[in-house]
Amino acid sequence: MTKGKLMPTPIHVFAEIAATYGNVNPDDADAVQKWYTEKLPTLKPELIDEILEALLRHDGTKPIPSAEKHYPIDVPLPSLKDSIPAKSPILRTVFDLYLKKIWKRIIQKK
Question: For the whole prediction, is pTM greater than 0.90?
Answer without folding.
Answer: no
